[in-house]
Write a structure and sequence with these properties.
By secondary structure, this protein is α/β, with parallel strands linked by helices. The chain has nine helices and eleven strands. Helix 5 (122-131) crosses helix 6.
Length: 304
């Protein structure tokens, strides 16, 4: 009896020891591989949802994206931030855009702010991080970068990228920058400090990122600040937030300050897969499934 008890005790201890070793291996040795696999499974499920969404379709809805420029605002922002020290005027649009995005990413980390800023403009947001809270969310990042790019004469808009699940309140807002030298849009994310490229090093737009996921093509994510970065989470995150999009029909300085200059120009344009209704939209929103018009080349900046 005692011998049997000893054997049983040794077996139990051996099993516990093996379980402990397995736990330590997963926790410290194979943790990265396990996390990678979990994010990959998550990403594949989200891509399957994108594929089930169906193809976009043309329509004849009436809307027109406008990009406002204001020379007085541009001068004020250029002087305040000393943009001439941040960018090379002779550099390509993409290089100047990256320089400004790096400036924002380097100085303002991501956080879900406790107090929403009263002044949603480049200067107002910068002063908010110096006097109220040192960090804020992706939307405020995109608004700040939007105005810096605009002051540099770079056409851009900030786009809200949303998931299919109405119970998922986590969306993402980034800048879409027009590169005239390449005649294309490019996504820029100062909040999560990254941009996307294809296999040849060409920066990708949001539409191209979505297409790459659908076709199983590689997307290379690059860190804005040059640090080594694990993009497993980010890759899965984007697969979720490329389901539908929305942005202002008219963009420019102080877009979200309830400025009177936008009176009568406050429509939001929403790009939806056919048959998908979206959620939390407004009756005045224009709901389209025509991706070619939504992502079309921009008109020149409108001087006002």
């Amino acid at each position: 009896m005692k011998k049997a008890l000893k054997i049983t005790t040794r077996i139990v201890l051996a099993v516990l020891m093996l379980a402990l070793v397995a736990f330590l291996l997963v926790r410290f040795v194979f943790r990265k591989q396990l996390v990678e696999q979990l994010y990959d499974i998550q990403r594949r499920g989200r891509v399957a949802l994108l594929r089930d969404a169906g193809e976009y379709a043309p329509d004849s809805l009436s809307y027109r994206f406008r990009y406002r420029q204001d020379t007085a605002c541009a001068r004020r922002i250029r002087d305040y931030f000393r943009l001439d020290t941040l960018t090379d005027p002779a550099a390509a649009t993409w290089d100047r855009s990256l320089a400004l995005a790096r400036f924002v990413a380097r100085n303002i980390p991501h956080a879900n702010q406790q107090t929403y800023p009263e002044e949603c403009s480049a200067i107002g947001l910068w002063e908010y991080t110096r006097t109220v809270e040192p960090a804020f969310n992706c939307r405020l990042h995109a608004i700040l970068l939007h105005e810096l790019l605009l002051a540099e004469g770079i056409t851009n808009r900030f786009v809200t990228c949303l998931p299919a699940d109405s119970l998922d309140r986590d969306c993402h807002v980034v800048n879409l920058v027009w590169l005239p030298e390449r005649q294309k849009w490019a996504m820029l994310d100062s909040d999560m400090q990254a941009w996307a490229e294809d296999e040849t090093g060409t920066p990708l737009s949001l539409a191209e990122m979505r297409e790459h996921y659908l076709k199983g093509r590689e997307i290379v994510y690059r860190p804005l600040l040059g640090r080594e970065k694990d993009f497993d989470y980010y890759r899965s995150y984007w697969a979720k937030n490329l389901y539908w999009f929305e942005c202002w029909e008219t963009t420019g300085y102080e877009r979200e300050n309830n400025s009177p200059i936008y009176e009568g120009r406050s429509r939001v344009i929403v790009l939806l897969p056919p048959g998908f209704e979206g959620f939390s939209t407004q009756p005045t929103d224009v709901r389209t499934s025509d991706d070619e018009r939504f992502w079309a080349a921009p008109e020149p900046l409108t001087m006002e």
